[in-house]
Amino acid sequence: MHQLIATYLFQHKQCTLLKYGHLFIKTSTAESNFINKQIDAPQQSIHFSNQEIDSAGFIEYVASQKNILLQNAKEDVEHFTQLFFSGQQNNLKGIGIFTIQNGSINFEAVDVNSLLTQPAYAERVIHQAAEHSMLVGDKETTTTEMTEFLAEKIAPQDKWWIWAILLGLIGISIIVFYYLIDNQY
Predict the structure, then answer these.
(1) Pairing between β-strand 31-33 and β-strand 133-136 as defined by DSSP bridges
(2) 101-150 residue pLDDT tens
(3) Could you tell me the pTM of the whole model?
(4) Which is nearest to 46 in space by CA: 108, 1, 101?
């Protein structure tokens, strides 16, 4: 029965232990590890809950694996769980250790084999000419928009001094013209 429980748990991510609760597998997300140029694989961990779930799938699985009737499979599972949880400490091979203290069930899971979850090599490639989407704060934008936003804006040069020189020359030419005309008469 140990093997059937472990196989069903890893195939379906949950397995009921009739009248005592159920085991389930939580899978974390993959993590980017840019420093080591790799993506760490999702990690799985086994947990136990005192809440009972629908056991029909597991009982059908046991019946098909043992080639027996559904009623006999249910009785086998009930008998196994009753015997299993009657002791103080029980080891479910490949899954974890159950400890019963003062009527409460404590569960200590074994680590899921890390050989199955090796990191993958991943070097980040950025094509300079290509447009990529990126997240800036909480806003999604593109590399082209960010390049335009961050580009140093060249302010139009102020050309006031040209007008000042031009007006000064006009003023001087008027004064010179006035004195030339005044000196002739």
Answers:
(1) unpaired
(2) 777 788 888 777 666 677 788 877 777 778 878 888 888 988 888 888 88
(3) 0.58
(4) 108
The 3-class SS string of 49-85 reads ECCCCCCHHHHHHHHHHHCCCHHHHHHHHHHHHHHHC
Residues 6+ apart with CB under 8 A from 89: 97, 98, 99, 100
Whole-angstrom CA distances from 166 to 49, 176, 177 are 89, 15, 16
- 158 class by beta-carbon count within 10 Å (0-12 exposed, 13-18 middle, 19+ buried): exposed
DSSP letters, 95-153, are: TEEEEEETTEEEEEEPPPPGGGS--EE------TTS--EEEETTEEEEHHHHHHHHSPP
Sign of the torsion formed by the C-alpha atoms of 16, 21, 23 and 24: positive
Q: Three-state SS string across 5-48, please?
A: HHHHHHHHCEEEECCCEEEEEEECCCEEECCCCEEECCCEEEEE
